[in-house]
């Protein structure tokens, strides 16, 4: 099993999983909050439409975790990429 680094900690994933799938498989249902109201967000649509699942990947912000395949050594930062 391979690992990505999420907020500085290793997280195992299965080849073929997206970043969002790896997070959900690890028990995380929310990984950022909205700017207004600080409401929790994670996967909603799962198909790249809603932008609820935004994370920073390898320094690139605003990435949709539900669309990006997990890759060994990838660095993921949560809690960024707010919208309303
Ligand atoms: S869950 Fe909707 S864009 Fe990722």
UniProtKB/TrEMBL annotation:
<dbReference type="InterPro" id="IPR036010">
    <property type="entry name" value="2Fe-2S_ferredoxin-like_sf"/>
</dbReference>
<dbReference type="GO" id="GO:0016491">
    <property type="term" value="F:oxidoreductase activity"/>
</dbReference>
<keyword id="KW-0560">Oxidoreductase</keyword>
<dbReference type="Pfam" id="PF13510">
    <property type="entry name" value="Fer2_4"/>
</dbReference>
<dbReference type="InterPro" id="IPR042204">
    <property type="entry name" value="2Fe-2S-bd_N"/>
</dbReference>
<dbReference type="GO" id="GO:0051536">
    <property type="term" value="F:iron-sulfur cluster binding"/>
</dbReference>
<protein>
    <submittedName>
        <fullName>(2Fe-2S)-binding protein</fullName>
    </submittedName>
</protein>
